[in-house]
Structure formats: structure tokens, C-alpha cells
Specification:
96 residues; alpha+beta; four-stranded mixed sheet; 34% strand; elongated
Length: 96
Amino acid sequence: MTQQTNSSLSNLKDGNELTITFPGRPFYEVRDEFGKRVCHCGAQKDADEKVMHNPGWSWNMFFWPSTPPNPVVDINAKRLELEKQLPPSDWTELNT
């Protein structure tokens, strides 16, 4: 199992100790033997479980940003001004 390197890691000096801060929350990407992504796990133990039960699978750790990279838009909140609707029909016209 490998840990993905991330060039955006920052080192902060806190007194005599070096403190490493990560850019976000760690996630684990599980891939099958062909390199196809199977799932994402939020805990290493879950990724380990998937890998142990499936020979040839592997996982890589990556850091999910603490904030989304783009603004989140709720698409359900926007509605068209004039909803497109079919005209009403008379059932008796259709059955004759």
C-alpha cells in the first residue's frame, strides 16, 4: 500500500518541533487489479478490508480539500418561470 505524495503539504515550525499540516481530510481510493476505481473510503480500516477480501486490489491515500473547490449550487432551488406542461386533454376524445 502506498501513500500518494502531495506537493501542497506545508511545514510549520512550532518552537523546536516541525509540525506538518495537511490540506484537508484524508480519503482512500480503492482500485481493482485493472486500475479501475472501485470506491472511496473515509477510513483506512475500510480500505484495508476491501483490499484484503479482493486479491489484486490496492488503495491510495489522498487529501480531500477542507472546502469544495467550486461553489456548491443547489439545482433543485432553481425553477423555470414558465413550466412546460402538456395541454389538458379530454379522456373521452381519446377513447372514440
